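Researcher: Sequence recovery benchmark, item below. Answer with residues only.
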């Protein structure tokens, strides 16, 4: 095992990570549970203990044809109004937007939209949602210490040790689970060609429907690979910080999962419409990632003596590559029937995913098989409940991307995966406008149930080993009535919910620290 002992104090450690002047309250957040990186490596909490029925496999449970996977232009993602207007035609898409405005006005004062509901969502926004402050950047902060500034040698660990310390640090900063994947060959085609957000704004808003496409530089960023040792940013067509350059060498992807509040996410007054409570549950992952996890983890990697590449400034939901792909290849989750969602064996479908690249060599994790995608072949709970009927009811996934009722070829879905394909334009219209849908597909998912009950654990372990009972379990789930939660009921049970609305102790592998 590598030796990297240090006697840095808590206050000095805060300075190393760029939190100088943080005060005793903030300093207590890094209480000396670990005295040095060797203790981090040897700690059980730095490992990844999963249930016996979650198996590592050589290939993801969703089949992938890497020959079809090309780099994707994220400016025409599912959130891009211009792309959706091409699919449906401007008149139909604009009508959906008008219906959304009418519905939003009518919701004020109703269940889930009362004053206390708005207050909860507004309070969450004050704690620096990704739209409000921009204390992160593509290559991370240059304020944190480096080995040279500390007169210490660069960290030298094995790939296995490196994964353990990354996992330990990330969980300390707020991550639920961490996966790792190597990007050396065809996996680089997962990196976007263009990002959907730039320093001047976003390319996905309705305002671009009637303007020349694509928007000018600054409303997106261009992502290139170059034969350089360290990535950088530069001006592009006269606009600062628009071209992102990654080194054209082997990089490692850190797949980050953040569990979200199941109960508040699942609130709906009518089973179709979202609430201010579910809006805050969705926004919480951005607060955790952009304000704590991303800048802290990038600072951690820099102080070890390595480089990392994350979300560029003002880029909230984009990143460098699809976070779901990161989760699947890095062994965090499996794909589900809704091709917009990954499902985690421990935390279910109410989870948020992010990705960060680094040149710190990591031991790649294998994809997992917990029987989740096989179960989705039988279960149609999300498809049956979807207000816009955007989720496939097919019995088998397909390599072929449907064109639905689009006026032009489907530009938002990427080939090379055998999926149950979602009608992404009708889905986007439903959740953004016509139904204000709370992504109810997550709320009703059978894997969104608590693992505390022995029956649920038994079901999970059974479907991981055999599919013979999948139909029975699906029918039983309808009998038990898994689904949405009345927002008034949420206010009754919320005081007794665990921290952040998720049970952070349920899947830990170690108890309280023994001093």
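Model:
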């Amino acid at each position: 095992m590598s030796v990297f002992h240090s006697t840095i104090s808590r206050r000095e450690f805060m300075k190393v990570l760029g939190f100088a002047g943080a005060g005793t309250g903030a300093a207590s957040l890094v209480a000396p549970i670990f005295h040095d990186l060797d203790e981090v490596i040897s700690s059980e909490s730095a490992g990844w203990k999963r249930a016996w029925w979650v198996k590592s496999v050589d290939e993801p449970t969703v089949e992938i044809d890497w020959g079809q996977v090309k780099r994707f232009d994220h400016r025409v993602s599912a959130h891009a109004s211009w792309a959706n207007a091409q699919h449906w035609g401007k008149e139909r898409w604009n009508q959906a937007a008008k219906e959304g405005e009418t519905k939003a006005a009518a919701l004020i004062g109703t269940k889930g939209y009362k004053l206390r509901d708005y207050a909860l969502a507004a309070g969450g926004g004050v704690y620096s949602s990704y739209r409000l402050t921009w204390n992160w950047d593509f290559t991370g902060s240059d304020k944190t210490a480096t080995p040279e500034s500390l007169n210490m040698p660069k960290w030298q660990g094995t790939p296995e040790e490196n994964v353990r310390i990354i996992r330990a640090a990330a969980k300390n900063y707020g991550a639920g689970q961490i996966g790792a994947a190597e990007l050396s060959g065809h996996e680089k085609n997962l990196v976007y060609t263009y990002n959907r957000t730039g320093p001047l704004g976003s390319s996905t808003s309705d305002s671009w429907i009637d303007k020349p496409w694509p928007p000018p530089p600054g409303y997106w960023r261009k992502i290139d690979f170059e034969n350089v040792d360290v990535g950088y940013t530069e001006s592009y067509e006269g606009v600062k910080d628009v071209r992102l350059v990654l080194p054209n060498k082997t990089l490692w992807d850190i797949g980050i999962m953040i569990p979200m509040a199941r109960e508040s996410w699942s609130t709906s007054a009518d089973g179709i419409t979202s609430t201010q409570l579910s809006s805050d549950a969705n926004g919480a992952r951005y607060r955790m990632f952009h304000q704590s996890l991303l800048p802290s983890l990038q600072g951690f990697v820099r102080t070890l003596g390595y480089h990392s590449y994350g979300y560029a400034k003002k880029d909230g939901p984009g990143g460098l590559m699809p976070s779901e792909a990161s989760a699947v290849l890095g062994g965090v989750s499996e794909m589900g029937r809704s091709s917009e969602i990954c499902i985690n064996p421990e935390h279910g479908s109410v989870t948020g995913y992010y990705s960060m690249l680094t040149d710190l060599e990591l031991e790649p994790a294998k994809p997992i098989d917990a029987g989740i995608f096989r179960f989705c072949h039988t279960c149609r709970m999300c498809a049956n409940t979807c207000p816009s009927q955007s989720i496939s009811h097919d019995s088998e996934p397909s390599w072929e991307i449907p064109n639905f009722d689009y006026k032009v070829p489907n530009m938002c879905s990427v080939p090379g995966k055998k999926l149950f394909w979602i009608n992404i334009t009708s889905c986007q219209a439903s959740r953004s406008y016509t139904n204000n849908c709370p992504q109810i597909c997550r709320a009703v998912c059978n894997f969104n149930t608590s693992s505390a009950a022995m029956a649920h654990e038994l079901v999970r372990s059974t479907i991981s080993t055999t599919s013979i009972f999948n139909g029975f379990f699906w029918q039983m789930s309808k009998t038990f009535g898994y689904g949405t939660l009345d927002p008034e009921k949420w206010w009754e049970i919320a005081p007794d919910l665990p921290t952040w609305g998720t049970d952070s102790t349920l899947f830990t592998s170690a108890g309280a620290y023994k001093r």
